[in-house]
Amino acid sequence: MTEVRWLDDREEQAWRSLMAMQEGLAEFIDRQLRHRCGLSHADYQVLAHLSEAAEPLRAFELGRLLRWEKSRLSQHLTRMEKRGLVRRERCETDQRGWSIAITAEGTELIEAAAPQHVTDIREVVVDHLTKAELEALTAIGDKVRARLAAQDPER
């Protein structure tokens, strides 16, 4: 067994700061979306991907974009379908599969939520960082995501 390389004070401070930021930002975004639009952050993510797609997305494609497990996606889509935000359609090229389409009501909700969501993101993140800080944040995010992808090639 290899010896554990514990975090030094600087590394631990950076890690805890990142975790606190991530949790706080997720809580803020979810609270704002629920309060203003009646959408959870997960609802918003699904609707955003569907609204940006040129055509309905295969369920596995949507799951890959969201980085969700199949069961989580299926359960969430069922709840959204009951609310009239999305619909499942038989895939034209593979009758065993499903495509997911945004409904008119889903489109209306995402179009109302998106400007407010962007305003919130500007308010708590973007407008308070310098150009260099934004570039560093992007570089850090890209580097960590690449490392995660290397650790789990199936995702």
From TrEMBL:
InterPro entries in the record: HTH_MarR-typ (IPR000835), MarR/SlyA-like (IPR039422), WH-like_DNA-bd_sf (IPR036388), WH_DNA-bd_sf (IPR036390)
Record-annotated HTH marR-type domain positions: 11-146
Pfam family, one: MarR_2
Protein name per its UniProtKB record: MarR family transcriptional regulator
Organism annotation: Amycolatopsis heterodermiae
Organism ancestry: Bacteria, Bacillati, Actinomycetota, Actinomycetes, Pseudonocardiales
